[in-house]
Amino acid sequence: MSDSTEIRVRRLAYQASYTGMKETDLLLGQFAKKHLPNLTEKQLDMFEALLEAGDPSIFAWVRGDEQVPAEFDGPVFDMIKDFHINQA
After folding, report:
1. Is the overall model pTM greater than 0.85, yes or no?
2. I need a labelling partner for 39 at 20 to 30 A (CA). Which of 1, 14, 45, 67 fits?
């Protein structure tokens, strides 16, 4: 992993741990620590875009309360859903 990617992964892991909603902080923070170092640059882009969508939306999508918009419904979100199911 390059230095710039490592810095990006640490920044995203921090952001994921402090999103503002405790439930999402726990889910995304733990996911980030475990999986972000292994993601590709494109997958990191997807994760970063997902963080920008906001806590209430992310939490509703993960729980299945709302439909995931097409722009976020992909391999990274699938990994997050699987992580959530396996953590429960």
Report:
1. yes
2. 67
